[in-house]
Amino acid sequence: MSDLLAGPAEIAGGLAVHGADAVDRSASASVREQLVARDVSARLAAKDPTLWGPDAAAEAKVRLGWLDTHQRSRELLPQLAELVEELADLDHVVLAGMGGSSLAPEVIARTLGRPLTVLDTTDPGQVRAALTDRLDRTVVVISSKSGSTVETDSHRRAYWQAFLDAGMTEAEAARHFVVVTDPGSPLEATAAEMGVVTIVADPEVGGRYSALTAFGLVPSALAGVAVTDLLDDADALAGSLGRDRDNPGLALGVALSAAAATGRATVTLVSDGTGVDGLGDWAEQLLAESTGKAGAGILPVVVESPDAPGATGPDVLTVSYGGALGPGQLPGVGADVAVNGPLGAHFLTWEYATAVAGAALGVNPFDQPNVAESKENSARILAAGAPAEPPSFTEGAVEVYAPAGAPDDLAGVLRWLLDGLGDDGYLAVSAYLDRRADAAVAGLRPQLARTAGRPVTFGWGPRLLHSTGQYHKGGPPVGSYLQVTGAVTDDLPVPGRPYTFGELQAAQAAGDRRALADRGRPVLRVHLTERAAGAAQLLDAAGRTRT
């Protein structure tokens, strides 16, 4: 345990934040005092949209519903109870959604031990595996705030066709769907045409802040979670939001902001093993997409364990998270800041802290100005076709597409990419693969971080486009990028569209590369011509970058 965590915690609603004051004391001027002088706590609790400046006010005015959406979400509970009863025979719950529509439900299900299949990919192998798993017992939750998300629309089309191909009538197939979307979205109209149950979400809550809205609660309830407990957790914390002390959300926001002000704008997120599973992936999106813009931002790095490479460092704020601790207990993970409490309180605390950090850093935490860029590139590539691009070299089952002047061996080109990070850069590894079948590729992060001595992140494409992709394009222009793609041996058509899932996945990867390369930063692509062999070869080469 860090000595910093032995000081007083800020506690409310069963959630405690340790270490925030020590981080604030490390700054040349107290961030807490500055925020208190601006009356940030009371103004945020009162939904004051001017906290983030005049340019952000219009957006903030319609995006602050997360502060009390847990209260309005209670209106959903009778409908959810009825739906769960009606669909009791459909015990395989699939969530088709991207970013904010899927990350919170996945954390909820993992933490509470309930089965939930999350489909947030266009990889044809992963989609096919989901489509063929217990189809007759499957209910598919189609979640999209905008109602126009291409991945989610493709999943809807694929499942609809699969149900019909299995011999169901359209009315029978419709029973296997539940749609969650904003009122008035294109998806709401499509669901009505399909005859599908639709639950509208809170329109004044942005996607990454939507954990306690219908987006988080509907799939969780269908998976067997007692979602009322999540709302109770948040409600118990909510009374602290207007306070300047004993306000965990403010304490965490102060720590994040003070660290960024003292050169620690990289935040590593690590579980302390006390019962909250996977929160780092959700918080990663929240922090990266909310703060990574206008050349500034907080870079979140999800690490595998407290002793993982890159978990700590002189320019890193290490934040651990976990479940509620007993009386007198202190966090057991060496970290600068520890956040412990019930899951519903975690969601509200991190959302509040992120909004506070936005106010301290001078960024609008509710927009995502650069997210559309990769999507638009992908659409153009889908329409026109990807240009032919010969590899720079091939080594075994790996084709390498490298910038001019890079070495012509796999370990050498990886080392070259890491050497180019300098003293202030970071490496983002993006894998446009099957995150189930190709899970071993995630081992690249610790391998490369051990060599680099700089922050290394890892994300699965295309879900990262709805998450850390904003930081990659809008944050500090110091990133370098390693993209991993893989051969598709058994493609899958997207019904009603002139492309396959494999073609969509390839276009998304190419669109992302183009958006990154346009910023003048190094982009290295490695393509696995045989996935298992190529992944093993790539991991071996990453290990050899230290020699």
How would you characterize this protein structure?
This protein is globular. The strands form three sheets. Strands 1-2-11-10-8-9 form a six-stranded mixed β-sheet. The chain is an alpha/beta fold and 547 residues long. β12 (393-395) and β13 (398-401) form a beta hairpin. It has 22 helices and 17 strands.
Give a short summary of the structure.
This protein has 547 residues and is α/β, with parallel strands linked by helices. The chain has 22 helices and 17 strands. A hairpin with a 2-residue loop joins strand 1 (10-12) and strand 2.
* Number of alpha- plus pi-helical segments: 22
Shape: globular
Strand content bin: 15-25%
In whole angstroms, the N-to-C terminal distance is 33 Å
Tell me roughly what share of residues is in helical segments: 40-55%
What does the main sheet amount to?
A: 6 strands, mixed
Given the helix and strand composition, which structural class is it? alpha/beta
Task: Throw out a few tags for this protein.
547 residues, alpha/beta, six-stranded mixed sheet, 22 helices, globular
Could you outline the blueprint of secondary structure elements for this entry?
Layout: E1 10-12, E2 15-18, H1 20-25, H2 31-37, H3 40-45, H4 54-61, H5 69-72, H6 77-86, E3 92-96, H7 103-112, E4 117-119, H8 124-131, E5 138-144, H9 150-165, H10 170-174, E6 177-181, H11 186-194, E7 197-200, H12 214-222, H13 227-238, H14 248-261, E8 266-271, H15 279-291, E9 299-302, E10 316-322, E11 337-340, H16 343-361, H17 371-384, E12 393-395, E13 398-401, H18 410-419, E14 426-432, H19 444-452, E15 456-460, H20 469-474, E16 479-486, H21 501-517, E17 523-528, H22 531-543
Parallel strand pairs: 3-4, 3-5, 5-6, 6-7, 8-9, 8-10, 10-11, 14-15, 14-16, 16-17
Antiparallel strand pairs: 1-2, 2-11, 12-13, 13-17
